[in-house]
Amino acid sequence: MTGPRALAEAFTGVFGREPEGVWHAPGRVNLIGEHTDYNDGFVLPFALGLGVSVAAAPRGDGVIEVRSRQAATAVTAPVDGGPVVSEGWPAERAWAAYPVGVARVLRERGTGGASLLIDSDLPQGAGLSSSAALECATALALCDLHGVAVDRPALARLAQRAENEQVGVPCGLMDQAASLLCTAGHALLLDCRSGLSAQVPFAPAGSGMTLLVVDTRAAHALAGGEYGRRRAECEEAAALLGVAALRDVTDLAGALGTLRDPVLRRRVQHVVTENHRVEATVGLLRAGAVTELGAMLNASHLSLRDQFEVSWPEADTAVNAALRAGARGGRMVGGGFGGSVLVLTAADRAERVRDAVAAAYAERGWTPPEFIEAVPSRGARRVTPA
Ligand code: GLA
Fold first, then answer.
1. CA 44 to mean position of chain CA atoms
2. 246 in the Ramachandran plot: left (φ > 0), alpha (ψ -120 to 50) or beta?
């Protein structure tokens, strides 16, 4: 990715005018609390240093024109159109459904047209929320360009709505909230029912630990039916249990005794215990016990693999290889069926852990994994003018 100044210059080259500013929104890694957001539960993500930048200028003709340094196609669309998903866009325009969708949803708050040039250093399909980062950078830019004030929790809900209604992906609130609300050196504890959040100090390096993100190179796509199916199963289980959402299940044994379908029992087991793992993890972080988080990550991974059934072979292999090499813990992150794994290791073992994961891949003849050292970073912001 280029810096903000080079992006602004590229904008001028492409659109023949100067941008009004450059905005940036990060991708995220979820420390713990997976598949809990759409169950009205708790999540604990942190922002990455990588993300999406947007150079932008307003337009008075009600048109949004988007270009990306990572895509060949330029897309022009009216901001007052219906849901993008109903327009049947071809695959090469699919990336632009996110910014156009955001422009269409934000229009009801008073924003209008714009020209946007997008640049990203987040790997796509790695489960690090490149889509949410694109939505959030666009949303911040549009609000500033058109002088519209929306507070960040509300903006996160609007960006989520754009993904649900415009792009047709039934995601929860976590990714957009993480991109907009995270702060450096913290994980974000978010109650997805109330929308209330708290910043929990999280600086692994201070405890001699390193967080490695392993891009397993198995691309994930939320639009595939499995994510929606899990969501529907959770809703069905909640209805059978007579609660508004699985977050409300307080008696796990009682709930498991009530449900007859073994699949629904497994889903409930995951969601209820995962919410408790978020609480336990927050307790450990507040106590400054970062090294103890490994046990939580491992329990989360087993639950996602065996109860929620959303893990994939590369993730299981990466987690197992990392643990055998002495990592404290590891788990798949994000929606599942592809994407990334998060590994917590003592910093002085990180290289051994990387080598072990790479060797396990090589043994199987898989495309080598990519490693990113994750540092809890700042949330979305206007970059220029400062
Ligand atoms: C994806 C979705 C999120 C969340 C996670 C699973 O990242 O976008 O809303 O449901 O999967 O925790």
1. 11
2. alpha
Q: Residue 351: which H helix or E strand, with range? A: helix 350-364
Which tens digits make up the pLDDT trace of 69-78? Answer: 999 999 999 9
In the chain, ranges of CATH 3.30.70.890 domains: 204-373
Is-contact 9 24, C-beta < 8 A?
Answer: no
How many CB atoms are closer than 10 A to CB 109? 16
Q: What pLDDT does residue 151 have?
A: 97
CATH architecture of the domain covering 4-201+377-384 = 2-Layer Sandwich (3.30)
| Superfamily in which the 204-373 domain is placed by CATH | GHMP kinase, C-terminal domain (3.30.70.890)
pLDDT at 219: 77
Helix (H) or strand (E) holding 382: strand 381-384
What pLDDT is attached to residue 2? 78
Strands (DSSP E) along 39-147, which ranges?
A: 42-43, 45-59, 63-68, 75-78, 113-120
Side by side, the strands of the sheet bearing 197-201 are: 42-43, 186-191, 197-201
Residues of the chain with CATH 3.30.230.10: 4-201+377-384
**Using an 8 Å Cβ cutoff, are 272 and 33 in contact?**
no
Q: Ligand 1 pocket test: which of 32, 35, 44, 274 has the largest number of ligand atoms within 8 Å of its C-beta?
A: 35
Is any ligand 1 atom within 6 A of the Cβ of residue 310? no
What is the CB neighbour count within 10 angstroms for residue 156? 28
* Number of the ligand 1 atom closest to the C-alpha atom of 174: 9
Whole-number Å distance between alpha carbons of 40 and 54? 31
**Residues present in the chain in total:** 386
Whole-number pLDDT of residue 124: 85
Collect the ranges in the chain with pLDDT lower than 50: none
- Indicate the SS3 state at residue 66: strand
How many whole angstroms separate alpha carbon 294 and alpha carbon 122?
Answer: 25
pLDDT of residue 222: 59
* Residue position matching structure tokens 């087993």: 302
Residue with tokens 């996110």: 98
Active-site positions read 175
3-state SS class at 338: coil
Ligand 1 centroid, distance to 18 Cα (angstroms): 36
Instruction: Look at residue 221 in the predicted model and tell me its pLDDT.
Output: 64
